[in-house]
Design a protein that fits this description.
This protein is of the alpha/beta class and 317 residues long. Helices cover 25% and strands 20% of the residues.
Length: 317
């Protein structure tokens, strides 16, 4: 009897001392019916950057920093089973895969590509639509007149058109493209280094909210419109933040003019927190400390009410 009681108590002790497994509950926030998703945030050269011998890129090879894809937005409409991409970047193959795997699978792969201008980070991904890669027929590419002409008259892009891998759809300044009953896109001209094409930003309008996308501009004061007033009209403003300040790179800024983050902050300093919160910085050079998640510079700017884009963010429209 005593032996049975001993084994009973021993077994009870083992069971009672065994730690219980916590029930793991994973709750995924449901995505809206229409939304913008961030597919890339880096300037044209990406991160790490070619030829970079600085500490910033060395940190990538040490495993401290992650690769950052070139600036791009995805536009997703779950209700209509459609999706579009803004910019055809050198990272477009993985950005399209991101849209497929994490957002919306469609037989068409993509319903259209909106281009801003002819700098390498913004259109060269079109190469992946060619016969060496995807090889599908009839992918819609939306482009302004000079950009359209540039693609039609220069190889290898002209081949994409001649063998019908892509179809160029013409855009006009301030003329709205209606994508469906919920989504509209309006291009508008922006002053930038227009060696091969004009440059546009986009207003993306949903049934609930609107967004500006201006990844490249020379300086805010060179634009005929007031960036402050334009930001106030929308819910989100994805704005050029290539460089943090004048000291960041040792080269003539006249060669690569962009509004410094510090300049944009100064411009909005007297505006409300609500207005500042609409500004979402994007298009970061590899040297820009704001490209990195936990930099002190980035945290200081966030305290002022501004925001930063990072891959994987979704914004309801």
């Amino acid at each position: 009897m005593k032996l049975k009681l001993f084994f009973f108590l021993f077994a009870f002790t083992i069971v009672s001392c065994t730690p219980k497994k916590e029930a793991t509950v994973t709750t995924e926030i449901p995505k809206p019916n229409q939304y913008i998703t961030i597919l890339g945030t880096a300037q044209d050269g990406g991160f790490p950057h070619i030829g970079c011998q600085k500490e910033c890129c060395a940190n990538y090879y040490r495993g401290t920093y992650k690769k950052q894809k070139v600036v791009s937005l995805g536009l997703v409409d779950v209700e209509h089973t459609q999706k579009w991409i803004f910019e055809a970047t050198p990272d477009m193959s993985t950005q399209l895969a991101d849209l497929e795997q994490h957002h919306l699978k469609t037989a068409t792969i993509i319903d259209g590509v909106f281009l801003t201008h002819a700098h390498i980070g913004h259109y060269t991904g079109l190469m992946y639509f060619g016969r060496e890669a995807l090889g599908k027929q009839g992918t819609k590419v939306y482009a302004m007149p000079t950009m359209k002409s540039f693609l039609e008259t220069n190889g290898p892009w002209s081949q994409l058109i001649s063998i019908k891998n892509i179809e160029i759809h013409s855009l006009q300044n301030d003329s709205t493209i209606v994508l469906n009953s919920h989504l509209k896109v309006t291009p508008f001209l922006i002053p930038h280094r227009d060696e091969f094409s004009e440059t546009v930003g986009y207003k993306i309008s949903g049934s609930k909210k609107t967004a500006l996308f201006i990844p490249d501009i020379d300086k805010w004061h060179t634009w005929k419109k007031s960036i402050i007033e334009e930001v106030k009209k929308v819910d989100y403003a994805f704005l050029d933040a290539t460089f943090f300040n004048q000291k960041e790179v040792k080269r003539a800024m006249t060669e690569v003019p962009h509004p410094f983050i510090e300049e944009t902050i100064a411009l909005f300093k007297d505006e409300s927190i609500e207005t500042k919160n609409k500004v979402i910085f994007i298009h970061f050079n590899h040297t820009n400390p704001a490209l990195q998640k936990n930099s002190k510079e980035k945290k200081q700017v966030e305290k002022l009410g501004f925001r930063f884009a990072f891959e994987g963010q979704n914004y309801e429209l």
